[in-house]
Design brief:
Length: 252
């Protein structure tokens, strides 16, 4: 038997070249990994902001502390700043994300209140009941009401974690009895996109908190607003492609 000579294989990499290629590959892989992580964070960050309607901004002026000088209330990127005569009185904590605010008398005591719909970690914050040792660290929706006294905010009422997040809210006297009601569109925590309104609910101040007077059937609600026609002003809400009107949520 005739033995063939072995063909020479490819020349082995020089000991100095192989580590360089490996290093480059490692760096490329690491850069790709970091890029994927950043893109993922951006995507979920956008979903998070969109879900909580944080991109909205609001600006209002009113005299809540009664010194005849209007304060400015400016909400930008989830952070509220209150200023009077160019001096900042208060800024919301960095770990709060405020969806929206309304300046209205929620508890019907004759004083305008600052009403906030906000997201924050921890169920109770500074008002945690003494008998509870654990604070829920998950980020949930809350409804807080403040008065402004001088240059200090004083809490009138603050919810713990709401059972369902408020997508939108209004404070109006909708039945003409000179007492304001709180009207909200309630969503769900589990929705991954913008707050999807599932119910409309009517609440009234009972002296120490809010009592639920009415809740709609489940649906697709949005754009809670005051409307006007020949007979006066009234509340309306979009329900899919329809517009429903309060107080009976009928189509007109
Ligand atoms: Ca003032
Ligand atoms: Ca009030
Ligand atoms: Ca009323």
């Amino acid at each position: 038997m005739k033995l063939r000579p072995c063909r020479p294989g490819p020349a082995p990499l020089s000991p100095s070249k192989m580590p360089i290629e490996k290093t480059i590959k490692k760096k490329l892989f690491f850069a790709l990994f970091i890029a994927v992580i950043i893109l993922g964070l951006c995507y979920f960050g956008c979903l998070y902001l969109d879900k909580k309607n944080i991109s909205t901004s609001q600006a209002k002026r009113a005299d809540l502390n009664g010194n005849l000088i209007d304060e400015s209330y400016t909400l930008i990127a989830g952070r509220l700043t209150i200023a009077e005569s160019q001096k900042t009185i208060w800024q919301s904590p960095a770990d709060w994300q405020i969806d929206s605010f309304v300046l209205a008398d929620a508890n019907n005591d004759g004083l305008l209140d600052l009403n906030l719909s906000l997201w924050k970690p921890g169920s109770f914050g500074t008002s945690k009941p003494f008998w509870l040792k654990e604070n829920d660290p998950s980020v949930k929706n809350h409804f807080f009401i403040y008065n402004l006294s001088g240059d200090k905010l004083k809490m009138v009422w603050g919810s713990s974690n709401l059972g369902a997040p408020n997508c939108e809210f209004l404070i109006q006297d909708i039945d003409g009895d000179s007492q304001n009601e709180l009207l909200v569109i309630e969503g769900e925590y589990r929705t991954a996109t913008a707050c999807q309104g599932r119910y409309v609910a009517l609440w009234s101040w009972n002296g120490w908190g809010f009592s639920n007077d009415w809740r709609s059937g489940e649906g697709d609600y949005s754009n809670l607003r005051m409307s006007e026609n020949d007979t006066g002003r009234f509340l309306s809400v979009d329900h899919g492609n329809e517009v429903l009107f309060f107080p009976d949520l009928s189509k007109k």
